[in-house]
Amino acid sequence: MSFYLFEDYSTKQNNEMQKGKIARLMDKGFGFIAIEGQDKDLFFHMNELQNTDFDSLKENDVVEFEVVDGEKGPSAVNVSIVTGDADATTDTDADAEVEAPAEA
Fold it and tell me: How far apart are CA 50 and CA 99, in angstroms?
């Protein structure tokens, strides 16, 4: 029954990449990806990370991945980080530039 809850994950065919955000990270080397418009998070294992290591991931990092049907249901493979919290630093720097002329 739970498999049908995940059926929408495989709407993209031919190994098309999808995007989502890291929802939760577990100490045992796996986590879950939240996909916009989906009620359930998608499982991934640290062995599926392509351009980063598990310890450098943070919640809300944007990732790109493919979905496969595993033994226990759909899971993410070929997981690559797209962006991290670097955006927050950029926003802070931009605010500082705007504030500087106001003080002058």
Answer: 39
Determine contact, residues 33/49, Cβ cutoff 8 Å. Answer: no
Separation between Cα atoms, residue 80 and residue 100, nearest integer Å: 37
- Taking only the tens place, the pLDDT of each residue in 48-100 is 999 899 999 999 999 999 999 988 899 999 999 996 554 443 343 444 444 44
Closest CA to 49 of 34, 37, 31: 31
- 92 and 100 in contact (C-beta within 8 Å)? no
* Integer Cα distance of 57 and 25 in angstroms: 8
Domains by residue range for the chain, with CATH: 2-103 (2.40.50.140)
- DSSP letter for 20, please: E
- Tokens for 61? 């990092």
